[in-house]
Specification:
Helix content is 30%, strand content 27%. The protein is an alpha/beta fold. The strands form 5 sheets. The chain has an 8-stranded parallel barrel with strand order 5-6-7-10-11-12-13-14, surrounded by 7 helices. A 6-stranded antiparallel beta sheet has the order 15-18-19-24-21-22. Strands 1-2-3-4 form a 4-stranded mixed beta sheet. The structure holds (2R,3S,4R,5S)-2-(hydroxymethyl)piperidine-3,4,5-triol.
Length: 541
C-alpha cells in the first residue's frame, strides 16, 4: 500500500476498518492534499508541539526529572528513545518494560509519544546495539575506511546486522500494535541520524563488489539522471557519498518496510545536516544520511519512510530558513524533530509551521542537567525552567489550544509564518494572502513609529498568520508589529478594521476576551512577549 494517502482515502480506510478500537482511534497517518501534508491523529490534523528528552533520560529513574520540564513547556508530544541494547539484552528475548513505561507515563501525562529507535545508527555510530553484538565483530562488522582502520559505524552491507535490527524493530512494532490501541505512540523514528563520520563510504569487500556494479534504477530515478553505468561513471567525484547514502537508505528501507507491515505507523528518518549554504566537499558532513544533496535518492530508495526530517542546530537566519526550504518539498513532508533550545532558536517556531511543518521540537528538554555543546552551556542546562525557555513556552502556550486548527489550515495552504532575520537592518517581512499583504516589522514601540525597522536586540521577533476567510485572519506575534494592507483587487483602497478581537478557541469555538482598538491598533497590531491571539476582520473604504 502507498504510504502517503489522500485524506479521502484515509477517511474511507477509517470507515471500513473492522477493528472496533481502531475505528475509535484511527491509525495516525501522514496525509497529502496537493503538495501539502498533515499528520492525522485520531482522524484529525495534528500539529506536533514537541519536546525531545536527552538521550539517556528515558528510564523510570530519570522520568521524574523529565515531566516537570516537559509540562512547564506546555507541549502536546514528547520524543523519547527506545534503546535496542536494553530491549534485547539477550539475543531473541525482548523486554519491553522501558517502552511500556514511556507509553504509560505519556498517557498519564496527557501527551502523545514519538519513539526514537536507537539501533544500528545513533549519530552515525552503533553504540546502542546490544552487547552480544558488540562482542561479535565478525558477524556485525564495522565500516572499513580505504585501507585504514575500522570506522566507528556498522557496515550497512552486513546481512546479519540488518537481520537483527529488522527482527528487533518488527518486535517493537508488533508490541506497540498489541498494547497501544489508543495510539499514544503516533510516529516512530527509524534509527537516529544514520550515516557515519570518519569515512565517505564503506570499503569492506562486500561494499567494494557493489561499488563496481551498475547504479540501481531507484537511485538513478531519485537523482533525476538518465545516465547509466557504474557509480563512478554516473556520479564521478560524488560517487562515494551517493553510494553510502544508497547503502544506508536500502538498509533502513528494509527495516521500515518490515516494521510497517507489522504495524502501519508513520515512520521518519532524522538527518544530521550539511551546511545548507556552503556545504563543502563530501567528507565534511555525515556520510550516508539524507542530506539535501541526496533527498531524491532517499525518497526513491526508502519509500516506506514517510519523511526525511532535518535536525536544525544552526541558529543563523539564512541557514535555518534555507534548511526549511530544502526539506519542505512536494515529495517530502517537513518536520523539525530536533532543534536547539537556546533562546536564538525560539523565534523559528512560527516560520517552521508556516513552511507547512508537521511539527517543531526543541531538543534536550528535561532537568537531568545533561547537555550537549550545541544546546548551550552547563549553566544553560540548569536554567531550563527560567528565562532561557520563555519564548519556547510562549510559542506552545499560544499554539496548543489551536494546534489542530493550524494543522488543518496548513494542509489547505492557509498558514504563513516569519522569523526576524539576524542580518543587517531593515528587519521586515512580507506575506501575501489573496487581496491582502501583511508587513511585519520588529522592535517597534506600541505607539508611534519609533526607530523604524531596526529590529530587536537581541533578534527574537516572529509572526504567524492563518487565513480563516478572504478578509478574516488569526494573528499572533512575538516582539513584532503586524500591518495588513489591501492588495490585488483591493489595491488603492484603504484598510479599516471591522473587528480586532483578542481571545482563543474553547472546545472548538472562538471566545473573545476583549476588542483591540485605539492605541492598540492605530500603529499596527503590536505584539510584546505575552501570548495573545487575535481574530481580525478586515474591510476597506
Ligand atoms: C542530534 C541527535 O539526533 C541527538 O540524539 C543528540 O545527540 C543531539 N544531536 C545533540 O545535540
Amino acid at each position: 500500500m502507498k504510504v502517503l494517502r489522500p485524506a479521502s482515502v484515509l477517511l474511507l480506510a477509517v470507515l471500513l476498518c473492522p477493528v472496533v478500537s481502531y475505528a475509535q482511534h484511527p491509525l495516525p497517518a501522514v496525509v497529502r492534499q496537493g503538495d501539502r501534508y498533515a499528520l492525522t491523529v485520531d482522524g484529525a490534523p495534528y500539529l506536533i508541539l514537541g519536546a525531545q528528552i536527552n538521550n539517556s533520560s528515558a528510564f523510570e529513574a530519570t522520568m521524574p526529572q523529565v515531566w516537570p520540564a516537559v509540562e512547564a513547556l506546555n507541549v502536546n508530544t514528547i520524543e523519547a528513545p527506545v534503546y535496542w541494547e536494553e530491549m534485547e539484552r539477550e539475543r531473541g528475548h525482548f523486554d519491553f518494560a522501558q517502552v511500556d513505561m514511556l507509553v504509560r507515563q505519556s498517557r498519564s501525562h496527557g501527551v502523545r509519544l514519538i519513539l526514537l529507535w536507537f539501533a544500528t545508527w545513533k549519530n552515525g555510530s552503533g553504540h546502542y546495539i546490544p552487547q552480544w553484538m558488540k562482542l561479535d565483530e565478525a558477524s556485525y562488522p564495522h565500516v572499513l575506511s580505504a585501507g585504514g582502520p575500522p570506522v566507528d559505524s556498522l557496515s550497512p552491507h552486513s546481512e546479519a546486522t540488518l537481520k537483527q535490527d529488522r527482527l528487533a524493530f518488527v518486535a517493537l512494532m508488533q508490541h506497540l500494535k498489541a498494547t497501544d490501541a489508543a495510539h499514544t505512540v503516533i510516529m516512530v523514528q527509524v534509527e537516529n541520524e544514520p550515516g557515519m563520520y570518519g569515512a565517505v563510504r564503506d570499503h569492506s569487500p562486500a561494499a567494494e563488489r557493489l561499488f563496481q556494479q551498475n547504479v540501481p534504477e531507484a537511485v538513478l530515478r531519485g537523482m533525476g539522471t538518465t545516465a547509466t553505468g557504474s557509480w563512478k561513471t554516473v556520479f564521478g567525484d560524488q560517487a562515494d557519498g551517493f553510494f553510502q547514502s544508497w547503502a544506508v537508505a536500502s538498509f533502513i528501507e528494509q527495516v521500515a518496510a518490515a516494521g510497517k507491515a507489522a504495524y502501519n505507523l508513520p515512520l521518519y528518518v532524522n538527518v544530521a545536516l550539511r551546511d545548507p549554504l556552503n556545504p563543502g566537499k563530501q567528507g565534511s558532513w555525515e556520510s550516508g544520511g539524507a542530506t539535501d544533496d541526496v533527498l531524491g535518492l532517499w525518497r526513491a530508495v526508502a519509500p516506506h519512510i514517510d519523511l526525511l526530517a532535518p535536525d536544525i542546530y544552526s541558529p543563523e537566519y539564512a541557514k535555518y530558513i534555507r534548511t526549511l526550504d530544502l526539506y519542505a518539498r512536494p515529495d517530502n513532508p517537513l518536520l523539525v524533530p530536533e532543534t536547539g533550545r537556546q533562546p536564538a532558536y525560539a523565534r523559528y517556531c512560527f516560520a517552521t509551521i508556516g513552511h507547512g511543518s508537521l511539527g517543531w521540537t526543541p531538543f534536550g528538554i528535561d532537568a537531568t542537567s545533561d547537555y550537549n555543546p550545541p544546546q548551550g552551556t552547563a549553566e544553560g542546562a540548569a536554567r531550563l525552567d527560567t528565562d532561557a525557555m520563555a519564548q519556547f513556552r510562549y510559542n506552545f502556550a499560544l499554539l496548543k489550544p489551536i494546534s489542530g486548527l493550524i494543522a488543518q489550515l496548513n494542509l489547505a495552504g492557509k498558514v504563513k509564518g516569519v522569523a526576524e532575520d539576524d542580518g543587517p537592518a531593515p528587519h521586515l517581512d512580507h506575506m501575501a494572502f489573496g487581496d491582502w499583504t501583511v508587513d511585519v516589522t520588529y522592535g517597534r514601540p506600541h505607539f508611534g513609529e519609533g526607530r523604524g525597522t531596526g529590529g530587536n536586540t537581541p533578534v527574537r521577533g516572529e509572526a504567524l498568520i492563518a487565513q480563516l476567510g478572504p478578509d478574516e485572519y488569526l494573528v499572533a506575534g512575538y516582539a513584532s508589529r503586524i500591518v495588513f494592507q489591501p492588495a490585488g483587487k483591493l489595491a488603492g483602497r484603504h484598510r479599516q478594521f471591522l473587528a480586532v478581537e483578542e481571545g482563543n478557541y474553547v472546545a472548538g469555538k472562538w471566545v473573545r476576551s476583549r476588542i483591540w482598538n485605539g492605541d492598540q491598533t492605530d500603529y499596527g497590531l503590536n505584539f510584546a512577549t505575552a501570548p495573545r491571539l487575535l481574530r481580525v476582520t478586515l474591510g476597506t473604504y
